[in-house]
């Protein structure tokens, strides 16, 4: 699409030249996704200061039929924020915490506040905002809501979707819907806010949100556990959940290969356990009760599980610094994979009861398809969500390996589908899973999604070609590498 001088002039006039970027070096950070795998193109980046300016940008783009791609922290992992022309609408300057209400247990924030800053504002009011991702220093709450982010605290508190009470949204035509209510009960018609949560910028632009806060835990206990296999991990999870209920705040699984590479590439990291085990679990208990410290409860629960023969070995973080060191082993897993060459990623979920079967079947199928490939299947086991990632065989050409992305998608996603799972658990669909969604989705569901898109964005200007392509195809999905 040729640049539109009139559009750029109007945006510059309203936002100021400093906030309508057109120079190639200024555009660059907005065109490439976080892993450098995908590159897009854009006419300009608009950086509005508030909701009214954001609405102005969207209205101008709608009138000119120019695509608008929202961006928060640009940490998304499915190419959803990569523009394929048009205007990138950066929400980074909408960065105010508008209100904290400890009695209502809510916080009202603008879309550009980083997740870490939302957590800090809640903490400053003596409360907890539980959403937690390894990218929390860079991702922004509008992006978290637009992707319905998951992370490590879903077990106790749910996804981003479960943490939102109200939204302010700029619609495709530039109107602003003010749904900033802080109500825990509100059945007055359809729940519109949930349409926008998880819609990845394809239905509206989130400019602010009312979020739930929770009592801040007084203590946490973190354990690193060695187990025979995923079936033992599942049995341990069920046992701990029955015992601790909502105090079980995380249950993450790390395979031996994952622990090996995180120790290899994390300076100063030491093996948490003496021997080698079939699989590892990072377990966290939290407690808001002064009379029931989380570490003691976790110690008793793990000792009982060991006596029952479920746990082979375990270590507990004896201090907050040690707790954090154990968490670092898990958090660094995403990063260290790139140090082992190309990595083909699948963010999938299956019912908890099917996790061991999924891991065994998908691992067997991938290893048979490419001898030497190294499966790194880790993640939010307690939510049924596995990052089923594949590291290239040692010595293989990286590009040749990544060229097999679609082939391995089909192998892994077929197993997911056969077990009643989801091919997009927490990262979303964006561009790189759009055609996979079309392949696996129920045709009725796909038709409904297309109708919702057409109703809310009739001219198709909001993040076109992402999530659901129009019937008959949209622009081609990005190549995997
Ligand atoms: C190291 C690392 C760890 C991660 N761990 C997790 C994890 O545990 N769980 C998880 O779920 N994700 C994880 N992610 C992925 C990513 O951080 C999340 O998807 C995050 O929610 C994206 O937020 P963002 O602000 O960076 O959004 P962006 O990348 O900027 O955008 C993501 C999508 O949302 C749209 N969008 C952004 N802002 C808005 C808005 N205001 N209104 C409408 N649409 C908008 C964009 O158009 C795009 O489609 C991780 C990423 C990294 C790099």
3D structure, described in words:
This protein is α+β, with helices and mostly antiparallel strands and 481 residues long. Among the domains are: 97-215, Uridine Diphospho-n-acetylenolpyruvylglucosamine Reductase, domain 3; 219-334, Alpha-Beta Plaits (2-Layer Sandwich). The chain is built from 17 helices and 19 strands. The strands form five sheets. The protein has a five-stranded antiparallel β-sheet. A four-stranded mixed β-sheet has the order 1-2-4-3, with helices on both faces. A hairpin with a 4-residue loop joins strand 5 (97-101) and strand 6 (106-110). Helix 1 packs antiparallel against helix 3, helix 8 (230-244) crosses helix 10 (294-307) and helix 13 (355-369) runs antiparallel to helix 15 (405-418). The chain is globular. The mean pLDDT is 95. It binds flavin-adenine dinucleotide. Flavin-adenine dinucleotide is lined by residues 34, 69-77, 80-81, 91, 111, 133-135, 139-140, 142-144, 146-147, 149-151, 200-201, 205-206, 334, 426-427, 430, 463, 466.
């Amino acid at each position: 699409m040729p640049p539109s001088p009139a559009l750029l002039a109007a945006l510059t006039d309203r936002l100021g030249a400093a906030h309508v970027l057109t120079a190639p070096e200024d555009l660059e950070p907005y065109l490439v996704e976080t892993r450098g795998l995908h590159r897009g193109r854009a006419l300009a980046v608009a950086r509005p200061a508030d909701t009214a300016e954001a609405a102005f940008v969207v209205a101008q783009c709608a009138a000119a039929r120019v695509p608008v791609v929202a961006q928060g922290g640009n940490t998304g992992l499915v190419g959803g924020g990569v523009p394929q022309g048009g205007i990138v609408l950066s929400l980074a300057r909408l960065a105010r915490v508008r209100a904290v209400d400890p009695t209502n247990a809510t916080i009202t924030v603008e879309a550009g506040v980083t997740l870490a800053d939302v957590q800090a504002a809640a903490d400053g009011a003596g409360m907890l905002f539980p959403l937690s991702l390894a990218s929390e220093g860079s991702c922004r709450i509008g992006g978290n809501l637009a992707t319905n982010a998951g992370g490590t605290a879903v077990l106790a508190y749910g996804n981003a979707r479960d943490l939102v009470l109200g939204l302010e949204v700029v619609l495709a035509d530039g109107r602003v819907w003010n749904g900033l209510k802080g109500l825990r009960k509100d059945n007055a018609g359809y729940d519109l806010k949930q349409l926008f949560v998880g819609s990845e910028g394809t239905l509206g632009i989130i400019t602010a949100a009312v979020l739930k806060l929770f009592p801040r835990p007084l203590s946490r206990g973190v354990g690193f556990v060695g187990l025979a296999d995923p079936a033992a991990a599942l049995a341990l999870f069920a046992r701990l959940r029955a015992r601790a209920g909502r105090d079980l705040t995380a249950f993450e699984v790390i395979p031996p290969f994952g622990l090996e590479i995180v120790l290899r590439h994390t300076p100063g990291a030491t093996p948490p356990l003496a021997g080698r085990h079939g699989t590892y679990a990072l377990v966290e208990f939290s407690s808001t009760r002064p009379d029931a410290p989380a570490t003691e409860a976790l110690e008793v629960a793990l000792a009982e599980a060991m006596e029952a023969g479920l746990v082979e070995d375990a270590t507990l973080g004896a201090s907050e610094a040690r707790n954090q060191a154990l968490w670092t082993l898990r958090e660094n897993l995403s990063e260290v994979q790139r140090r082992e060459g190309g990595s083909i990623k699948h963010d999938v979920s299956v019912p908890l009861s099917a996790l061991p079967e999924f891991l065994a079947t998908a691992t067997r199928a991938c290893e048979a398809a490419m001898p030497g490939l190294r499966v790194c299947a880790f993640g939010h086991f307690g939510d049924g969500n596995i990052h089923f990632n594949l590291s290239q065989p040692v010595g293989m050409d990286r590009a040749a390996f990544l060229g097999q992305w679609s082939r391995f998608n089909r192998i892994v996603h077929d197993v997911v589908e056969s077990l009643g799972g989801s091919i997009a658990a927490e990262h979303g669909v964006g561009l790189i899973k759009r055609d996979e969604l079309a392949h696996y989705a129920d045709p009725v569901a796909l038709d409904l999604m297309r109708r919702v898109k057409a109703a809310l964005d009739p001219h198709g200007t909001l993040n076109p070609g992402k999530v659901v392509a129009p019937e008959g195809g949209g622009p081609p999905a990005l190549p995997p590498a």
